[in-house]
């Protein structure tokens, strides 16, 4: 019965995921049509005075609309290739709330720097994703709820390591700290950076829907093991073989 419930939950998650994607696709096409309407406007706005100013304002609006249209087209292409909705900076999933507000965004709230970014999908950043609409089911054996739980744990660990790194780096730069102590601090920094890097890799795998596969046999590592050891690289059988050489 447990397997049946798990399958049912997975299908529910997938259906909800698909519904959200279709909602966002419709919103993207709506925004694209609006942007193209602005681009085709040729009449200057009324009530703005005489001279070239109305034409200049219209041209600026058309240019902004053209950039927006290009970004929206890139977002639609990401949807078609199954890589839509993940932050291009850190790899985490972008909140649905944010996507509904700005469906063509490429960044999560934390990574958004309000910079003008080059248009075009960064598909090369996701080499392991297949170009189909079944990626969520075919490549992931964990439900979205389970992945969210693990992601939160990993993000919490990464935050703690990042904070510790900042403290260690500040201590190394402190002139009051003895030179003999700094060598130990530098070793701690290397260790902390290594731990943070491993966590970032795991978070990136979650974003790319490749997380939780055994490095030995390729099978899905059970959620219970990943919950206890979210950085586990092997299932239990392969772990034993790995430890026994």
Folded structure, characterized:
It comes from Streptosporangium saharense. One of its GO terms (molecular function) is zinc ion binding. A zinc finger (dksA C4-type) spans 87-111, 214-238. Keywords: Metal-binding, Zinc, Zinc-finger. Residues 83-111, 210-243 form the Zinc finger DksA/TraR C4-type domain. The protein is mostly helical and 245 residues long. The protein folds into two domains: 2-131, Up-down Bundle (Four Helix Bundle (Hemerythrin (Met), subunit A)); 144-243, Four Helix Bundle (Hemerythrin (Met), subunit A) (Up-down Bundle). Helices cover 61% and strands 0% of the residues. The chain is built from eight helices and no strands. It has helices at residues 2-39, 53-81, 96-101, 135-138, 144-172, 179-207, 223-228, 236-243. Helix 5 (144-172) runs antiparallel to helix 6 (179-207). The longest helix has 38 residues, at 2-39. The chain is flat, with a radius of gyration of 24 Å. The two termini are 37 Å apart.
Which labels suit this protein?
flat, zinc, mainly alpha, disordered N terminus, zinc ion binding, Four Helix Bundle (Hemerythrin (Met), subunit A), 245 residues
